[in-house]
Design a protein that fits this description.
mainly alpha
Length: 253
């Protein structure tokens, strides 16, 4: 019999999977703050480091489910993904180690800043590149930075990866989102192993989130080409701003 807590975890995963696959964000910007605020309602406290650890499993599920759909649609630049994933994997391992040792207040502050940046880019709208062009030399260090943010904050790294692939590597936006989702899964494996070794990964909660994400990401990848993005981006941006404010209040007030 499914408990209320399990259903809540699946619900968080569903929302994260749909939004993550549609926007190429990996879902971590939903999972981490949602766990922080939902679990206390069930009498279970959780640190932000534990929430980040669980989110890594959600990111892995987004990568597996979303990438499978995008591969079927022929949108993934597999060669680009394999060439760039070593940078995100190394960066992810470094970020995960930082997540184990940095104080919760510092991680929450960085996460809130990333949420606000994500909201800004969604509201402002990315200057999208739809024509092929030679990649910039800044792509490898930028992808390494994306990996660090992925490991430290439990996000997929798409907040950084999608603009890097689109603006610096010259990959058209839909292919950039698909390729970013593909890279997410490869990066999250190493991140999850680091957090599990550090004793922060609750596999019971992670399984519920992952189940929801697997369903949601598959649906989100299929809906991405059909849903008008403007209203969704506006609502999601407002949610990010509200969540960032709540995190800053919780850890600084």
């Amino acid at each position: 019999m499914l408990t209320g807590l399990t259903l809540a975890m699946i619900g968080i995963g569903l929302l994260a999977g749909v939004l993550g696959a549609i926007l190429g964000l990996g879902g971590g910007v939903v999972v981490v703050p949602a766990l922080e605020f939902v679990l206390p309602l069930f009498g279970q406290e959780i640190s932000i480091a534990q929430a980040v650890a669980i989110s890594q499993i959600g990111v892995l599920a987004v990568g597996l489910s979303g990438a499978a759909s995008y591969l079927q649609q022929g949108l993934v630049r597999a060669r680009t993904g394999y060439l760039l994933s070593p940078y995100t994997i190394v960066g992810g391992a470094l970020g995960s180690f930082l997540g184990l040792v940095l104080p919760a207040q510092a991680v929450a502050t960085v996460f809130a800043a990333l949420l606000l940046y994500s909201a800004y880019t969604l509201l402002r709208g990315l200057r999208r590149v739809d024509a092929e062009r030679p990649p910039s030399r800044l792509v490898p260090p930028a992808m390494t930075f994306a990996g660090i943010m992925s490991g430290l904050l439990g996000i997929g790294g798409g907040t950084v990866q999608v603009p890097v692939l689109n603006l610096l590597a010259g990959v058209p936006i839909r292919q950039a989102i698909a390729t970013s989702t593909f890279i997410m899964g490869l990066t999250a494996v190493g991140n999850a192993l680091v957090y599990h070794a550090g004793g922060l990964l609750d596999l019971r909660l992670a399984a519920g989130v992952a189940l929801g994400v697997l369903i949601g990401a598959r649906a989100g990848a299929s809906l991405q080409s059909r849903i008008p993005a403007a209203r969704l981006k506006l609502l999601f941006s407002l949610l990010l701003i509200f969540t960032a404010g709540q995190l800053l209040w919780k850890y600084w007030a």
